[in-house]
Please model this.
Amino acid sequence: MARTALVTGGNRGIGFEVCRRLAGAGLAVLLGSRDAGRGDEASARLREEGLDVRAERIDVGDAASVAGCADRLAAAGIAVDVLVNNAAVYPTRGVLDLDDATLEETFAVNLLGPWRTCRAFVPGMVARGHGRVVNVSSGDGSVADGIPGPGAYAVSKAALNALTRKLAATVRGDVKVNAACPGWVRTEMGGGAAPRSPARGADTIAWLATLPVDGPTGGFFRDRAPIPW
Ligand code: NAP
Model:
């Protein structure tokens, strides 16, 4: 039976391309979207390409929405074998200019969301002895590089990297947890001047999501190569 992947924020940008890549590799893909209509539209586009993709409503900034998604999948007997925490927001204001609402939303979506999806789906992976988690991070959150991105975004990605290492050290069996930086990609977040296509941005993420049993865990990768935390 095909393994199942859940990709958050799969309705556009890099997440959409990750859905296409994983379905093309033979996985059954749950295209996560916080908006049901956008999710249905995006998944229908991929089904037109002959891919096994269906929409799943999940707002990662909302604990009840994450729990609701987990409950629906459990009730349907669907196990998530591959979790791609891709959804994120990108406020551009500096550390000292952020209002509370922006600060809270950024951490809710970029950090607590992935944490909650991991809490919902990783125990099942550990119990079954197999799983792949990819946290889509950014060089903007690299401590080694000086956390160069805008305030809340950069710190949220640094924290997501910390969660990645912590979780990788916690799980057992063939469960791999890695972080990926897609590079600067032409999406709504990256803007039109970015040099990379969404497909190129999706490549390392899809690679980590389908690692063989002897693949790496607890690492941070760009272009399929390790980069400093
Ligand atoms: P994007 O085009 O802005 O797409 C963001 C996606 O996240 C959309 O599907 C959006 O859904 C979803 N999202 C936002 N808040 C959400 C929430 N509360 N719940 C569920 N989904 C939510 O961004 P992207 O460029 O594809 O970025 C994808 C990932 O790559 C992010 O983690 C980003 O930090 C990372 N990244 C991107 C770049 C780049 O240059 N683009 C560089 C480094 C890292 P809606 O359509 O509903 O808004």
